[in-house]
């Protein structure tokens, strides 16, 4: 893939300055009109996206609809229905010492924003943030992944058809293009990708004191305790893990299963995989519902993780077949993985699912807390005490109880990580706020009680100020 021209990038960035200033005063109707144009152009290319995803990594039309188009359409639907309400200044009652003033939070566009999207969900993780940025009144420059060239090219045509370059621009390319973009003083950067690259983005943003949203990843753990509905857990986890062939930032990375239900759980998972993708290895490889690994390099990485675990003594329960030339790895369940195996420390991001037997929940919690904070945590249990313990004693970007992955699709919840798994939030109103500056506005009234605090500081005035300070020991009404 050719790299974007650095001068064209700079020209687009400079041209967006005047637009960003003009859009600062844009109305809800104007912003909604932009989002609608994007929606209509997107849906007009529905079938073309099927073909593009098939070329890039054999993603089925059903998965394109469910995991690419659906999230973007949900973002758009929320914007169309709620943007006027989101944009209204929010009044706040005065605190004790600010009696007599009017206070409100005003939502302003950040200005010119940069969106760097990943390859695993190249459409939804590119156009989703773009919808939020447009709703907040920003201009945008987008950098999609070079690893999905057919989808990126189609998105580029849509952006060029819908927007002028001084409004929204898309630049294709690899690391040099990203580097050129990160040298520019954007007002906000929204990055989705790995923690290692997220650190580079944050470092670049610091040179201009630009705010950042980092949607990263990590090893999201799942716990299946002795009270769990094992059949439902298997059905749901086999969907969440092998959706997009495991190339999902919130996919279950590994599963802790109580010893008393482990055999039942493994058997249920194997049965689900056979029912969904084929009864044997050959049938599964022919399945049109299994997305391929994105490229040979990532296939080799996953094959290396699997081979390392097996070489150390791990047991493959089902799957394990690898065809690097076809970017294929079978849905694989693996257990009895010894300490030191790379699969236990590296984010998997593929169709390999380690199953780890446990007996005491405290041991699981200790293992989770010893690792970097994950993007998601999944608890399968019908014992409320276990659920409460897991949620209270661990930290993660998001969590699901007796479900997995689905919290990403809940537009009224903030989606984001914590520490190593990211910072900031996306989706719905949270996405609107991410791309907005919450500006505090205070207006004085004729009462002007603040004059009581003006010098000269006589003894009487000191007593008055002390009285006010002492009154703050009382609880708020």
UniProtKB/TrEMBL annotation:
Top-rank lineage group of the source organism: Bacteria
PROSITE patterns assigned:
ALDEHYDE_DEHYDR_CYS (PS00070), ALDEHYDE_DEHYDR_GLU (PS00687)
The UniProt entry, under InterPro entries, shows: Ald_DH_CS_CYS, Ald_DH_CS_GLU, Aldehyde_DH_dom, Aldehyde_DH_NAD(P)
UniProt keyword Oxidoreductase, yes or no: yes
Q: Which GO terms describe its molecular function?
A: aldehyde dehydrogenase (NAD+) activity
List the GO terms this entry assigns under cellular component, sorted alphabetically.
cytoplasm
| One of the protein's GO biological processes | aldehyde metabolic process
Which keywords are on file for this protein?
NAD, Oxidoreductase
Q: Which residues form the active site?
A: 215
Provide an example Pfam family for this protein. Answer: Aldedh
Q: Which residues form the Aldehyde dehydrogenase domain?
A: 2-440
Q: Which family does it belong to?
A: Belongs to the aldehyde dehydrogenase family.
What protein name applies here? Aldehyde dehydrogenase
Query: Could you tell me which species this protein originates from?
Result: Duganella violaceipulchra
């Amino acid at each position: 893939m050719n790299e974007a021209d650095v001068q064209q990038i700079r020209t687009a960035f400079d041209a967006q300055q005047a637009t960003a200033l003009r859009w600062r005063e844009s109305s809800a109707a104007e912003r909604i009109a932009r989002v609608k144009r994007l929606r209509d152009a997107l849906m007009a290319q529905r079938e073309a996206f099927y073909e593009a995803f098939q070329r890039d990594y054999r993603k089925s039309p059903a998965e394109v609809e469910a995991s690419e188009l659906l999230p973007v359409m949900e973002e758009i639907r929320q914007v169309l229905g709620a943007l006027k309400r989101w944009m209204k200044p929010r009044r706040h009652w005065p605190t004790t010492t600010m009696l007599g003033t009017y206070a409100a939070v005003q939502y302003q566009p950040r200005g010119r924003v940069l969106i760097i999207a990943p390859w695993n969900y190249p459409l939804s993780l590119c156009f989703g943030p773009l919808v939020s940025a447009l709703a907040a009144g920003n201009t945008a420059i987008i950098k999609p992944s070079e690893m999905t060239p057919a989808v990126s090219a189609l998105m580029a045509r849509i952006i060029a058809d819908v927007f002028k370059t001084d409004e929204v621009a898309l630049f294709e390319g690899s690391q040099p293009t990203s580097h050129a973009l990160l040298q520019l003083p954007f007002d906000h950067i929204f990055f989705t990708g790995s923690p290692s690259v997220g650190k580079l983005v944050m470092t670049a943003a610091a040179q201009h004191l630009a705010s950042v949203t980092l949607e990263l990843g990590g090893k999201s753990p799942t716990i299946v305790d002795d009270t769990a509905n094992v059949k439902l857990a298997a059905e749901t986890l086999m969907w969440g893990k092998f959706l997009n062939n495991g190339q999902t930032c919130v996919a279950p990375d590994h599963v802790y299963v109580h010893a008393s239900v482990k055999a039942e759980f493994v058997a249920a998972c194997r049965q689900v995989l056979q029912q969904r993708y084929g009864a044997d290895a050959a049938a599964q490889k022919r399945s049109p519902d299994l997305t391929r690994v994105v490229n040979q390099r990532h296939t080799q990485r996953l094959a290396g993780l699997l081979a390392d675990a097996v070489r150390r003594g791990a047991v493959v329960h089902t799957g394990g077949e690898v065809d690097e030339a076809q970017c294929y790895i079978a849905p694989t369940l693996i257990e009895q993985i010894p300490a030191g195996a790379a699969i236990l420390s590296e984010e998997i991001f593929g169709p390999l699912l380690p199953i780890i037997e446990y007996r005491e929940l405290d041991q699981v919690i200790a293992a989770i807390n010893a690792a970097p904070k994950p993007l998601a945590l999944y608890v399968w249990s019908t014992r409320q005490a276990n659920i409460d313990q897991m949620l209270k004693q661990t930290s993660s970007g998001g969590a699901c109880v007796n479900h997995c992955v689905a919290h990403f699709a809940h537009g009224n919840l903030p989606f984001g990580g914590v520490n190593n798994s990211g910072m900031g939030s996306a989706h719905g109103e949270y996405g609107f706020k991410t791309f907005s500056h919450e500006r505090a506005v205070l207006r004085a009234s004729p009462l002007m009680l603040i004059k009581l605090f003006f010098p000269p500081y006589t003894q009487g005035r000191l007593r008055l100020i002390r009285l006010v300070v002492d009154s703050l020991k009382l609880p708020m009404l």
